[in-house]
């Protein structure tokens, strides 16, 4: 089996924390770096300018001679290290100066690969120019430091970087290309536009749907990249089916997303961190609600990207509404929705209460929101609250709180990072409708927090596969059957599971928590990296054949 001497990997989320791909790359880096050392190089966008990325440490002593050569060639780069535990080399690439060659680039992509850029809009142009710049950086580095004696893989993530993989295939055909779609753009669009995806997946034509949903250019680059690269990959079996139907290209290899748990506290430190997280969550809830929730309050949360339907946020709210009316529920529940929205500012009235250190017996105005939004009247979550009259009344057994900001430790209310807070949950709920993998449930179980997810999430299907049947809360993950149309059944299943969990004694709870942690150990990168090795081998074998055939011409 062939393994690369060098890996260049690019994503819009290298040193740029936007979503789940940041976690995928940054946690996987440790496992790859142990083997490749500084022959693992990440390339990301220099979108911070003079302010500098908070996730990047520039080092002008790295590849000093090449840095000067690259700048002489007109490349605008910063070389340093990604500020993550493995500290891999990262190159931030500027691309704005290439805008004048955009039309020539689009013509080249059409002529060589039939990529349709005619209907481009939004972030398409930026993605194409960033990819062009990345391809030029890799070319420059290759000609300065490498040769055909090296086995090299270029790994592009998502359609935004597919351009670079195609361009390099023309200029450096000896480099093996891997392309990973973490979710097809047309599949996500179908689901996001409230169209039934799964029952009719077999009947959808990807090109036709791209035209209908105004996604032609993004779909085109994703589809053509999938067809032309040396190894096309995706992250789960459910997304592999989606690729086969909508991109007309089955995945060559499925690359499930693993996890690096070195930062999960151990032993007494774990207990300390969990206690601190619970105290913070309950303190904020009490200040907002004007209550005195007891320490045995069940803390439940959902989190992730703000995709109201796709992430199942709508179903989560429905479940909490039904749970509040459930006579069987004996414990108080506080449910947090931790989803970044169009946040304005942290609530000053809430800050004042938190800083006072006092207990209050009256709620604040709108006691279901920790930060003001810029679109208070148009926000889907708030409108759902209003439609169900979820106003956190004094006599509610279930209170639901919207946290519309990134939990980075500087939000003004909690001032704790997401990982420092998730450990304080009793249950996490992710009732996803469209979820190619599902990092949030994997993160939850790594912190010994049992979770509820669905069989439309890649992680949920994997959990079922590990058990050999539907996983239950006693296994650490409750996997709920979900279809295009059974929202009510899913909400009821969530309600039932939470009620069941709330009634458990400490021994039963500890069993669930232990099972969750054991399951997370099966998803470590040390277990999943084998799939990447297969992909690298596949790509290198194909690139070798292509380069050999070129030499014969």
Automatic annotation (TrEMBL):
An annotated Gene Ontology molecular function: alpha-1,4-glucan glucosyltransferase (UDP-glucose donor) activity
Keyword annotations: Glycosyltransferase, Transferase
GO cellular component: cytoplasm
Source superkingdom: Bacteria
Transmembrane domains' residue ranges: none
One Pfam short name: Glycogen_syn
GO BP, one annotated term: glycogen biosynthetic process
Record bears the keyword Transmembrane: no
PANTHER family: GLYCOGEN [STARCH] SYNTHASE (PTHR10176:SF3), GLYCOGEN SYNTHASE (PTHR10176)
Protein name (record): Starch synthase
Organism annotation: Prevotella bivia
């Amino acid at each position: 089996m062939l393994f690369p001497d060098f890996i260049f990997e690019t994503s819009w989320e290298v040193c740029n924390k936007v979503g789940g791909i940041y976690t995928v790359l940054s946690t996987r880096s440790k496992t790859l770096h142990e083997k490749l050392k500084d022959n693992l190089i990440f390339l990301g966008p220099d979108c911070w300018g003079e302010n500098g990325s908070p996730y990047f440490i520039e080092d002008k002593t790295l590849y000093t001679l090449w840095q000067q050569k690259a700048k002489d060639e007109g490349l605008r780069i910063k070389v340093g290290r990604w500020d993550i535990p493995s500290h891999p080399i990262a190159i931030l690439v500027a691309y704005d100066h290439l805008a004048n060659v955009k039309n020539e680039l689009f013509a080249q992509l059409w002529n060589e690969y039939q990529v349709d850029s005619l209907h481009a809009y939004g972030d398409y142009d930026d993605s194409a120019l960033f990819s062009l710049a990345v391809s030029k950086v890799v070319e420059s580095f290759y000609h300065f430091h490498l040769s055909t004696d090296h086995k090299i893989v270029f790994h592009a993530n998502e359609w935004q970087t597919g351009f670079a993989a195609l361009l390099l295939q023309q200029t450096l055909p000896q480099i093996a290309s891997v392309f990973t779609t973490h979710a097809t753009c047309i599949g996500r669009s179908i689901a996001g536009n409230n169209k039934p995806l799964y029952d009719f997946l077999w009947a959808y034509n990807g090109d036709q749907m791209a035209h209908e949903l105004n996604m032609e250019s993004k779909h085109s680059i994703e589809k053509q990249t999938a067809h032309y690269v040396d190894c096309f990959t995706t992250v789960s079996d459910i997304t592999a089916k989606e690729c086969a139907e909508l991109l007309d290209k089955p995945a060559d290899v499925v690359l499930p997303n693993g996890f690096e748990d070195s930062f999960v506290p151990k032993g007494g430190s774990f207990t300390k961190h969990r206690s601190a997280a619970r105290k913070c969550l309950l303190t904020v809830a009490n200040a907002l609600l004007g209550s005195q929730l007891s320490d045995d309050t069940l803390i439940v949360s959902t989190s992730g990207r703000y995709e109201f339907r796709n992430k199942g946020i709508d179903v989560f709210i429905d479940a909490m509404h039904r749970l509040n009316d459930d006579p069987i529920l004996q414990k108080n529940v506080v449910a947090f929705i931790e989803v970044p929205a169009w946040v304005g500012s942290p609530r000053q009235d809430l800050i004042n209460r938190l800083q006072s250190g006092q207990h209050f017996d009256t709620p604040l105005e709108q006691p279901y929101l920790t930060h003001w939004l810029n679109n208070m009247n148009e926000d889907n979550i708030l409108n759902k609250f209003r439609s169900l009259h979820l106003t956190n009344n004094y006599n509610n057994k279930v209170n639901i709180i919207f946290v519309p900001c990134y939990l980075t430790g500087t939000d003004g209310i909690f001032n704790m990072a997401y990982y420092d807070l998730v450990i304080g949950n009793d249950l996490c709920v992710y009732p996803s409708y469209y979820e190619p993998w599902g990092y949030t449930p994997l993160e939850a179980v790594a912190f010994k927090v049992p979770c509820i997810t669905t069989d439309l999430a890649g992680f949920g299907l994997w959990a079922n596969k590990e058990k050999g049947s539907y996983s239950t809360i006693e296994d650490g993950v409750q996997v709920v059957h979900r279809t295009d149309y059974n929202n009510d059944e899913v909400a009821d299943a969530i309600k039932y599971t939470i009620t069941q969990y709330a009634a458990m004694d400490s021994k039963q709870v500890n069993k669930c928590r232990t099972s969750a942690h054991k399951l997370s150990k099966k998803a470590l990168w040390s277990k999943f990296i084998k799939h990447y090795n297969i992909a690298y081998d596949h790509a290198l074998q194909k690139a070798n054949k292509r380069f050999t055939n070129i030499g014969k011409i």
